[in-house]
Write a structure and sequence with these properties.
CATH class of the largest domain: Mainly Beta
Number of domains: 2
Order of helices and strands: HEEEEEEEEEEHEEHHHEHHEEHEHE
Shape: globular
Oligomer: single chain
Structural class: alpha+beta
Largest sheet: 7 strands, antiparallel
CATH topology of the largest domain: Jelly Rolls
Number of strands: 17
């Protein structure tokens, strides 16, 4: 009696656990991209909202704050009169201007709102503004670090999902803060403020922005892991039933062997899928080279192995914004894709290249000094300039180079390479500058 009752009781128990697990994954957690998430919701109407335009700096644009039930926003009349006309909405999400929220462990940001403008080519800039005592000045909002992304108007209707790994620090803000000790890494560990503003080269005329809430999603567990636990539970149950039946059928070895092989195949398939997913998440889909996450993994390997000497090259497309503005984003994407092919062919087996943000790329060259690779980089620069990308104009690049022969400090190396890149930009572009030379 007891031997017959145990499998039945265990079956009922496992069925209850399965229903609970499926209920949690279906209702308690948000799921997409094969992951389960918990969500932090920020209602715009609950915070403090400030709206202003370039009229505060002698421009002619006008911005009017709009509050409608649970929605806030602004009506902006963008006019000529300022070098870069703009309207801005500041959303303070905490009661302390210097103590914000930490979004570093969050994967996605979702926005519920709308954007109307004269042209569907207009962009809306969304920035998570970071406060850091090392460079942020009290009550000087422009010194809060920009972690930005620009979205085209047609994508801002209803809910839009933003991958926070796609945020970048704009070059124009880095240039404005050049005197401060700032790196180009995205930092969203202390965000008291979310800014929405008209994007680059927005069309003159009426712009209307409405936002009701911001939602931030944090990964809890891969969905495949939830189902794997369910599968393991059921597998244990199957083995348990086989064990009970073995009392009567002399441990049916052949059947148990078949089941064990099945489990091994399932686990191998899950492992293969997990490995493929990890590789996919580290590749920039437009250029086919590493993304920022993939490059971070390479940098960690260099740090752990102390691969010195080590050289970092920061490469930036010259006048890329003009290509997007005059020829369209399809041409811009073509340039980025072709440059990815050239850079992938350029690197050697022990080297790595990634798209670091926007039109900026990073090359990691272990066991090499600046002088050892300068001729290769010059050949790369000439090769890019001479490549016909079928957009009707020549594409050139500027490069900044920095090396170390001792302790590896990537923040310092990247900052040094960025400084050299700024020198190359200011010296007419289409050239290579080595840090300190």
């Amino acid at each position: 009696m007891l031997q017959n009752a145990l499998p039945v009781k265990t079956l009922i128990f496992l069925m209850l656990l399965t229903l609970i697990a499926m209920g949690i994954s279906a209702y308690a957690l948000k799921t997409y991209d094969n992951y389960a998430y918990t969500t932090t919701t920020i209602n715009v109407a609950d915070g403090w909202v400030k709206v202003y335009s370039d009229s505060t700096s002698r421009g002619n644009s006008k911005a009017k704050k709009i509050e409608e039930d649970t929605t806030s926003g602004f009506d902006c009349m963008l006019r000529e009169g300022h070098e870069h006309p703009y309207c801005i909405m500041l959303n303070w999400i905490t009661n302390n201007e210097f103590q914000g929220l930490d979004f570093s462990e969050y994967k996605y940001m979702r926005i519920t709102g709308s954007y109307e403008s004269p042209s569907e080519n207009d962009f809306l800039r969304i920035s998570l503004r970071h406060f850091n005592m090392d460079y942020t000045q009290m009550y000087q909002v422009h010194t809060y670090k920009f972690n930005s992304i620009e979205l085209q108007r047609k994508d801002i209707q209803g809910e839009i999902i933003i991958d926070l790994e796609q945020l970048f620090v704009p070059h124009w803000w880095m240039s404005m803060m050049r005197g401060a000790d700032i790196d180009s890494f995205v930092d969203i560990t202390n965000v008291p403020l979310i800014e929405l503003s008209t994007g680059t080269n927005a069309a003159f005329g009426e712009h209307k922005i409405r936002v009701s809430k911001f939602e931030f999603d944090k990964i809890v567990v891969p969905i495949e892991l939830v189902y794997e636990y369910i599968l393991i539970g059921w597998s244990i149950y199957i083995l348990f039933v086989f064990f009970c039946l073995s009392i009567y059928f002399a441990f049916n070895l052949r059947r148990r062997t078949i089941e064990e092989k099945t489990l091994i195949q399932i686990n191998n398939a899950l492992s293969t899928h997990s490995a493929q997913l990890e590789i996919f998440n580290k590749i920039d889909q437009l250029t086919g080279i590493l993304n920022r996450a993939g490059m971070k993994a390479k940098m960690m390997q260099c740090t752990e192995n102390n691969t010195v000497p080590l050289t970092v090259v920061m490469l930036d497309l010259d006048h890329f914004k003009k290509i997007n503005d005059t020829l369209g984003h399809q041409s811009g994407d073509l340039v980025l894709s072709k440059l990815g092919e050239i850079l992938n062919d350029f690197i050697q087996d022990d080297e790595s290249v990634s798209r670091f943000g926007g039109e900026e790329f990073m090359i990691l060259m272990p066991y090499k000094t600046s002088n050892m690779i300068i001729d290769r980089l010059e050949s790369l620069r000439i090769s890019i300039e001479q490549t016909d990308i079928n957009i009707g104009k020549t594409v050139t690049t500027s490069m900044g180079v920095a090396s170390t022969s001792n302790h590896i400090d990537f923040k310092k190396l990247i900052r040094s390479a960025d400084n050299a890149l700024y020198v190359a930009k200011n010296n007419g572009r289409n050239c290579i500058k080595i840090e300190g030379q």
